[in-house]
Every structure is written in C-alpha cells, then in structure tokens.
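Methods — Computational structure assignment.
A single polypeptide chain was analysed. Its primary sequence is given first, followed by the predicted tertiary structure written as structure tokens.
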Amino acid sequence: MTRQIISTWSSVAAIVITSCAGDVLLSRAMKQVGDVGELWHRTGVLNVIGRIVRNPWFICGVLCMTLAFYSLLFALSWNDVSLIGPAAAALTFIANAIAAKTFLHERVDRRRWIAALLVAGGVILLAA
C-alpha cells in the first residue's frame, strides 16, 4: 500500500513540476515574441512561426509539456484517473500561481490566492 501511495504522489509531482515549468517557459517565450496578431499582419504568418520556433524558451517549454504529457500517461497507467486527474490539475493550478508570481513577476490578486487555497483543501480531501 505504501509503495502505491509513493508512486501515486511521485507521478502527480512529476506532472505538476513539468507542466508548470512548461507553462512558465512558454509564457516567457511568448512575451519575448510579442503580440502575435500584430506581427502576423505586419510580417506574415511564416515569420511569426519562425520567430516562435527559434525562441529557446519556447523549445524548452514544449519539451517540458511533452514530459508532463508522458508523465500523465505513466501515472494513469498505474493509478486511478479519479485521483490523478483532479490532483494533478489542482496542484498545477497552485504551482502556476506561485510560479507566475515568482518567476514571471505577474500580479496574482487575492481572489487567485483564495482559489488556490480552496483547491489545496480539495486535494487534501481527495487524498484522505
């Protein structure tokens, strides 16, 4: 039983960490690229695609999101979807709020922090 609990929460942690890292890296890349709509009208779609694909933060973000996807597949092959799905989604929401504040210096308002705390409470209830 203990081994299954460790594998469950280790797989959830892998999903959360890689998904959050991917979100942060992709957000940073797209902020560097700029307004895609404006660039598209000004320089064309091929230039926009080239600019995005050449951004190293974008490449790292896509790799992290790929790892998150395969971590999710691995977790679902060993554990119940009724636990993995909600726990990974909820903890990713919390991790994204923290990462947005810490790494991207975004303003995270009080409502988001309250929502994150409520989500954390839900995860605790789910795990009990």
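Note: The chain is about 90% helix and 0% strand.
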